[in-house]
UniProtKB/TrEMBL annotation:
Residues 27-335 form the Tryptophan synthase beta chain-like PALP domain. The keyword Lyase applies. It is found in: Mitochondrion. The active site is at 92 (nucleophile). SUPFAM superfamilies: Tryptophan synthase beta subunit-like PLP-dependent enzymes. Belongs to the ACC deaminase/D-cysteine desulfhydrase family. Keywords: Lyase, Mitochondrion, Pyridoxal phosphate, Transit peptide. Pfam families: PALP (PF00291). This is D-cysteine desulfhydrase.
């Protein structure tokens, strides 16, 4: 009954002194998301890894972005917007989630998607996130990587905003990844959710560490601030999949300052590089890892975010087992399954073959149903 309801918001008591407390939130995600033990192979002695399934926060509107959008959409509606503008990579999960959330609330969405110079004048196709965006009627504008880095995401969204204003529309701009100080509340609130789950569901487990992927910084800003302020006090380790750790310490600092948190990002988060070959580019090793984890644990990681973060975590555990021995780790699976569809060609050689079933033509049908074909 709660889904899509607009509700007044009151923060957890430990966050009540923070600036920019949202007045309302829209219930968009299937929350709380489950936490369960993750039976990863070859862990250091007595290390436990648990998984928070934010990939199960919905179906077409799934992953970590839904938590930010609960606050951002409430703000957009409160400000009288009739459409949402946002921006990201060609397979942006954030843009897809925004397009779906907008339609749930009867708003239009305008997405600026970054692609290669070669493809910018072509139809972007229907793979993965693009299929969902186009099904819900998002307006898509393509921009080349070169133009994107020359102009920047803020100026690009402003150009589109001015154009829509001239056409009489009332646009609301959400920045890359939904990572502004308001969106950060999504993961401050997630920490309250985890606190409550630990009290009621998972018995006596106390997490030493939280591990998550980082792409625009909002998720780790919320998690690390929340963990620091709440009773959780778990150390937040982020594996960044683009740019570099210094860049993200600054981004997170900006978000924390926006909330007047009075904390240094370097004191509450440990950010490492897991970019590998580059944003959304995978080595065969990384894709093989995603395949192995799926085949051994049933959990499907996405290749762009959680896949790279988990790859980085297990690599570090192999190289420095003592550091992780005996620790209880909560890995946050932030979703992104649709991004996997963009990798099918690269993945195909890693997967087993299918074959035609061996049946003898003369096996008679025994269920009593007549021959139809
Ligand atoms: C599936 C997925 N996981 C993780 C992230 C990273 O979250 P954030 O942008 O808040 O750093 C993103 C988006 O960038 C994402 O789409």
């Amino acid at each position: 009954m709660d889904l899509l309801a607009k509700k007044p918001y009151s923060p957890p008591s430990w966050a009540s002194h923070i600036n920019l407390i949202p007045s309302h939130t829209f219930s968009l995600g299937h929350l709380p998301t489950p936490i369960h033990r993750w039976n990863l192979p070859n862990l250091p002695n007595n290390t436990e890894v648990w998984l928070k399934r934010d990939d199960l926060s919905g179906m077409q509107l799934s992953g970590n972005k839904v938590r930010k959008l609960e606050f951002l959409m409430a703000d957009a509606v409160a400000k009288g917007a009739d459409c949402i503008i946002t921006i990201g990579g060609i397979q942006s999960n954030h843009c897809r989630a925004t397009a779906v959330a907008a339609k749930y609330l009867n708003l239009d969405s305008f997405l600026i998607l970054r692609t290669s110079k070669l493809l910018v004048d072509q139809d972007p196709g229907l793979t993965g996130n693009l299929l969902v965006e186009r099904l819900v009627g998002a307006h898509i504008e393509l921009i080349s990587k070169e133009e994107y880095s020359k102009i920047g995401s803020v100026a690009l969204t402003n150009i589109l905003k001015e154009k829509l204003l001239k056409e009489g529309r009332r646009p609301y701009v959400i920045p890359v990844g939904g990572s502004d100080s308001l969106g950060t509340w999504g993961y401050i609130e997630a920490i309250r959710e985890i606190e409550q789950q630990l009290q009621s569901e998972t018995g006596t487990v106390k997490f030493d560490d939280i591990v998550v992927a980082c792409g625009s910084g909002g998720t780790i800003a919320g998690l690390s601030l929340g963990s620091w302020l709440s009773s959780l006090k778990a150390k937040v380790h982020a594996f960044c999949v683009c740019d570099d750790p210094d860049y993200f310490y600054n981004v997170v600092q900006g978000l924390l300052d926006g909330l007047e948190a009075g904390i240094d990002s370097r004191d509450i988060a440990d950010i490492r590089n897991a970019k590998g070959l580059g944003y959304a580019i995978n080595t065969t090793d990384e894709l093989n890892f995603v395949k192995e984890i799926a085949a051994t644990t049933g959990v499907i990681l996405d290749p762009v975010y959680s896949g790279k973060a988990a790859y980085g975590l297990l690599k570090d555990m192999t190289e420095n087992p003592k550091k992780w021995e005996g620790r209880k780790i909560l890995f946050i699976h932030t979703g992104g399954l649709l991004g996997l569809f963009d990798k099918v060609e690269q993945m195909a050689p890693l997967l087993g073959n299918c074959r035609r079933m061996d049946v003898c033509e003369s096996v008679p049908r025994k269920d009593g149903i007549g021959k139809m074909f």
